[in-house]
Design a protein that fits this description.
Distance between the termini of chain A: 35 Å
Strand content of chain A: under 5%
Strand order of the largest sheet of chain B: 5-4-3-7-10
CATH superfamily of the largest domain in chain B: Cupredoxins -  blue copper proteins
Largest sheet of chain A: 2 strands, antiparallel
Number of strands of chain A: 2
Number of domains of chain B: 2
Number of helices of chain A: 17
Number of strands of chain B: 12
Radius of gyration of chain A: 24 Å
Strand order of the largest sheet of chain A: 1-2
CATH topology of the largest domain in chain B: Immunoglobulin-like
Strand content of chain B: 15-25%
CATH class of chain A: Mainly Alpha
Oligomer: heterodimer
Order of helices and strands of chain B: HHHEEEEEEEEEEEEH
CATH superfamily of chain A: Cytochrome c oxidase-like, subunit I domain
């Protein structure tokens, strides 16, 4: 993959080049491959959930007897709680956060700012290898009693705090907490590295306001992560202490669960929710801001036009990050938190919709008046805009406290965050993979297969997730193994079956992507440095870039989005191209 | 292909609105009863209307932005558009306009919601006290969640919970129609959530905290009491039933329940020996 292996490859040089590599590009690809594999695991877990919701208590065809021989091929209610807990855990901690910051952050930051590597290459290597204890802990939790953590990805105590509370609250929950802590360590190592690199290692001429929006969003995300993560880590250790050494941070006095009396008391279950969401709400933006940045770059490149309102885009990313710290309470409107506080959080939550709206308008402004090339990455980027509008607007419903009384913990919420995180971020990630693939591997992915992949994913994701809004309007609750137990929801079964088959088709569609991805590494059309005719620095380096990235010293003369500039004859104007006067 | 993709994106607002309209129109096949469950409370319509207000506002933005995206894709397709690219870095005026209008709208939505929230969660119902002053209305019933059932305790004639004349039931919540019901909610073990879909009432039960919910049921019948916060493997079966009945039926039910649990009527069965 790298172009400097002229000498004979020994085992130790292979290990230092591809395994314990300190090259940001290899680390980025390691993150990418790991997260794509976990994406498959998370998707299959989701199908388990969908099967139960469409055909409750029926044998799962083909694989049911292998997986659940004890239950005669059915999903047990215990395992159903494991399924949705682990689906969310895998997707959030092993897919979305590491694919954005770990894979694309690592790969793109030095290249796009014209640096030869990260500021701290060894720390960077560690940030990847600290994911492995997390993979082992969370993956291993399936094989200990309880067969997986089962108190939701939010891990609310006392359910998660007391071993007697649920089969999944034993060793599995301890492993889950350790796993999440390791992800946090990995993210923290990445964050300080990204911040330092972006502040210190920009090429000559690369001022802050000449950085691509991808880099701006990675920068702000790194800051968010660095400030929010310690709170989650602390909370995680508090819960570990409650579980292992008998403290009572989250346990009230005299709590009796399943006939087991808690050793200590005097704590408060709501404290966990505050600490957890103080990290996890900013984390929601950690999971979308880099996607927004990458989409902005892709839109400008294929509209052949500057990003509309570059500075307002930067300001709105910053505003989202700032406001992101004072909206966590909107997860807790009906939790028992003081309802007066709920009003404050409603206002701040409403206001955070504003910078998101500004971004949408600017994306529309970017596409307006361009010359749109409908490539696969462009289609994914356009669909990000279209889908993010849905996810953003549905957020206003739950920001409104009285409406949230009804839709809280229903499928309306599930619809909302899947539109933001799947139809938004995951679609942007696919777009980014198609877009930067030629840089990563020196070859193109097949465009026809890419468009078929896009088309089918787009159709089936809407079939799966749009209908969830309607379920939520009926009040259909989340996390129920059998919602049809209730008269109110019995008539929703056919709609759930439709959604399940859309979800199955959506996962099956990814075979096309996997084939295209793997096949093209070896047999894709070979390309030069700048196949899409872009302006930003990574396209000036060889494809794939060798160790040290650039074979010349990049000097930056202008902003990243000068497409269609009248100063030059071609329709793009690379950041490194000297202006005509000095030529 | 630009035409094909534009039309596919045009389908997003069309089908999106279509699905909501079908669900909204009660009688339209195949979406029968795909909207809010029947409202039996006197305040539920306020929440439903707030939902609808937001739906109309956001729906408008959804349609307008969706159509704009479609139109730009259609018009500025590189293979069809011969005009030069509009080389612009943005517009200060537009940024100001599209910041201020949404900001005002969002602030309006937030302020518009506040009274409904205060009525539902902050201002507890009052009644006339013995001395003619207004006092906070005491709870009629206490509902305690535990894995995986609802333990329900009525105050009895002295209107005080925790005394000899309390009436106990499990999973059976009865309320008299037309009277403001104050319900004390607690949890014995883990988090639960007291969710009455038909009354638009939801409140998490937190161990160690005593909270209150209140509403006025306006319609007799039987409705679901749902646990809406994950409480363990049996979360799905933590099902209660709300029975709203006339005052006289309610009193008769209370009397019968009290009688059935009094010591005098207790007859041990053979199995209990």
């Amino acid at each position: 993959m790298t172009s400097h292996d002229h000498h004979e490859m020994t085992v130790s040089s292979f290990v230092s080049t591809y395994v314990f590599s300190r090259d940001h590009k290899i680390i980025g690809l390691q993150f990418l491959f790991s997260t794509l594999l976990w994406f498959l695991v998370g998707g299959l877990l989701a199908l388990g959930i969908r099967w139960q919701l469409a055909y409750p208590w029926t044998d799962m065809p083909v694989i049911g007897s292998m997986l659940f021989s004890g239950e005669g091929g059915q999903i047990s209610p215990e395992f159903y709680t494991v399924l949705f807990t682990m689906h969310a855990t895998v997707m959030i901690f092993f897919v979305i956060i590491p694919v954005l910051a770990g894979a694309f952050g690592n790969y793109l930051i030095p290249l796009m700012i014209g640096a030869d590597d990260m500021a701290f290459p060894t720390l960077n290597m560690l940030s990847y290898w600290f994911m492995w204890p997390a993979f082992i802990c969370v993956g291993g939790s399936f094989f200990v009693p309880g067969h997986g953590a089962a108190s939701g990805w939010t891990s609310y105590p006392p359910l998660s705090d007391v071993t007697a509370a649920s089969p999944g609250s034993g060793t599995a929950q301890t492993l889950w907490l350790l796993g999440v802590t390791f992800v946090g360590i990995s993210s923290m190592m990445g964050s300080v590295n990204y911040m330092t690199t972006i502040i210190q290692m920009r090429a000559p001429g690369m001022t802050m306001f000449r950085m691509p929006l991808t880099i701006w969003s990675m920068f702000i995300t790194a800051i968010l992560q660095a400030f929010a993560l310690p709170v989650l880590t602390a909370a995680g250790f508090m819960q570990l202490a409650d579980r292992t050494i008998g403290t009572g941070f989250f346990l009230p006095e005299g709590n009796v669960i399943n006939n087991s009396v808690a050793a200590a008391g005097g704590g408060q279950p709501l404290l966990w929710q505050h600490l957890f969401w103080f990290y996890s709400h900013p984390a929601v933006y950690i999971m979308i801001l880099p996607a927004m940045g990458m989409v902005s770059d892709i839109l400008a490149c294929f509209a052949r036009k500057p990003v509309f309102g570059y500075k307002p885009m930067v300001y709105s990313i910053s505003a989202i990050a700032g406001l992101g710290f004072i909206v966590w309470g909107h997860h807790m409107f009906v939790s028992g938190m003081n309802p007066v506080l709920g009003m404050t959080f409603m206002v701040s939550t409403m206001m955070i919709a504003l910078p998101s709206a500004v971004k949408v308008f600017n994306w529309l402004g970017t596409v307006w008046g361009g010359k749109i090339q409908f490539t696969t990455p462009m289609l994914f980027a356009l669909s990000f805009v279209s889908m993010f509008i849905i996810g953003g607007l549905s957020g206003i419903f739950m920001a409104a406290t009285p409406v949230d009384i009804f839709i809280h913990d229903t499928y309306f919420i599930v619809a909302h965050f899947h539109y933001v995180l799947f139809a938004g971020t995951a679609m942007a990630v696919w777009g980014a993979i198609y877009f930067w693939y030629p840089k990563m591997f020196g070859r193109m992915m097949n465009e026809t297969l890419g468009k078929i992949h896009f088309f089918l994913t787009f159709i089936f994701l809407n079939g799966t997730f749009f209908t969830m809004h309607i379920l939520g309007t009926v009040g259909f609750p989340r996390r129920l193994a059998d919602p049809y137990h209730y008269e109110t929801f019995r008539h929703l079964l056919p709609m759930n079956q439709f959604m399940t088959w859309c979800a199955v088709a959506m996962v099956a569609t990814q075979v096309i992507f996997a084939w295209n991805f793997i096949y093209s590494i070896f047999f894709g059309k070979a390309v030069g440095r700048n196949p899409w005719h872009c302006n930003t620095l990574e396209w000036m380096a060889p494809s794939p870039p060798g160790h040290g990235n650039f074979d010349f010293q990049p000097i930056v003369y202008r902003g990243p989005y000068e497409y269609g500039s009248p100063e030059t004859d071609q329709d793009y104007y690379p950041q490194t191209q000297p202006p005509p006067s000095s030529a | 292909m630009g035409r094909f993709w534009s039309i596919m994106f045009l389908l997003v607002p069309i089908l999106g609105v279509g699905v909501f309209v079908c669900a909204f129109m009660d009688e339209t096949w195949p979406f029968v009863n795909m909207w809010f469950p029947e409202d039996i409370s006197d305040h539920g319509y306020i929440i439903d209307n707030l939902f609808n207000t937001i739906m109309y506002l956001t729906g408008l933005i959804f349609i307008v932005t969706g159509l704009m995206l479609f139109w730009f894709m259609w018009k500025y397709d590189a293979t069809k558009n011969s005009e030069p690219v509009k080389f612009t870095h943005g517009s200060h005026t537009l940024e100001v306009v599209w910041s201020i209008i949404p900001a005002a709208t969002l602030l309006f939505i937030a302020i518009y919601q506040m009274n409904a929230w205060a009525d539902a969660k902050i201002i507890r119902p009052t009644e006339m006290g013995p001395n003619g002053q207004e006092v906070v209305k005491p709870p009629l019933v206490e509902v305690v969640g535990r894995q995986f059932e609802w333990r329900i305790r009525y105050a009895g004639e002295d209107r005080i919970i925790g005394t000899q004349d309390d009436v106990f039931t499990v999973n059976e919540l009865h309320l008299p129609v037309g009277e403001e019901a104050v319900i004390a909610i607690k949890s014995d073990d883990v988090l639960h959530s007291f969710f009455l879909p038909n009354a638009r009432v939801k409140q998490d039960l937190v161990p160690g905290m005593k909270q209150f919910v209140w509403f006025r049921p306006m319609k007799t019948g039987q409705f679901d009491l749902v646990c809406a916060e994950l409480c363990g493997w049996g979360h799905y079966k933590m099902k209660g039933r709300l029975t709203v009945q006339s005052r006289s039926d309610f009193d008769a039910w209370m009397k019968a329940s009290a009688a059935s649990q009094s010591l005098a009527s207790f007859t041990p069965s053979d199995e209990d020996e």
